[in-house]
Amino acid sequence: MNKRHKQQPCALQKKPALHAHGQHFLQNKQVVKDMIRAANIQPTDIVVDIGAGAGAITMLLAENSCRILAVENDPRLAETLRRRSQAMPSITVIEKDILQMRLPREPYQVIANIPFYLTTSILQLLLQPQNSLLQRAVLIMEKGAAKGFTSRTIRSPRLLVWRMWYEMEMVKAVPRGCFSPPPNVDSVMFRIQRKQEPLLPVHLTGRFAALAEYGLKHPDRSIYDTLNGIFTPPQLKHLAARLGVDRNLPVCRLNERQWSLVFDTMLTHVQRLRWPGKHR
Ligand SMILES: C[S@@+](CC[C@H](N)C(=O)[O-])C[C@H]1O[C@@H](n2cnc3c(N)ncnc32)[C@H](O)[C@@H]1O
Q1: 28 C-alpha to center of ligand 1: Å?
Q2: Mind listing the pLDDT tens digit for each residue in 143-156?
Q3: Which of 52, 87, 100, 239 is the one with CA 20 to 30 A from 61?
Q4: Does S-adenosyl-L-methionine appear among the keywords (predicted)?
Q5: Does residue 215's CB lie within 6 angstroms of at least one atom of ligand 1?
Q6: How far is CA 247 from its chain centroid?
């Protein structure tokens, strides 16, 4: 046999490991029940299960009579779930990459044990205020990621924009033994809730995002050094008093409420030509 057509050694023929696709299946029904309770699911809700697998969450959700969109891109798992839910009209199985999916055009909830490798992309998809009607999500995610999203300091412009719109909190730890196979990192139940009163109107999101990009380019710089490219010294003095902070504090220590004051002060008192971004 020609060398090039020799069979590959077995190790190379192995299927990719399940966890390479974030496939850590929930084995513990109580965790799923706790997620459903934490999301306060009502019979009238539309609920998206992202990475539905064989249905650990979807099947229990169906007991709440809500409408469920179960999204799964692994054809074998999607087929299993289609079979399991055949007689359940409230469940629609969507065999698709979640990142290619059009989200509901009406208010919806998410309950999901997400593939960890897509955490940021999934949040990016769900938390775009311009095109997402997400009301609440209860997700299982890696503890490290959850800590970053709820951190007291805000170093990422994207996170800052999300937090203008959504409350984020860790609900509780989910032990590794609740999954099969167990992940090699710690996991938590994480809740995202649309704020009753968002800190930003949708139509100003682009303008605020430009301020966030500018303001957090060097998150450890002081508030004064960061913002003196936008505000004049008297405006900065007025702003520091409004914020109730020392102007030498690192800018990453401002919370989302304080950033909304920075934004408001900029819109009210600063000439447009000094605003960051292309939206002048
Ligand atoms: C952590 S498992 C959760 C499975 C199930 N929900 C459970 O709790 O047992 C994540 C699931 O997401 C699926 N998945 C991975 N990437 C995906 C993608 N891009 N779009 C949709 N599903 C995906 C995996 O196949 C896997 O079934």
Answers
A1: 16
A2: 999 999 999 999 99
A3: 100
A4: yes
A5: no
A6: 31
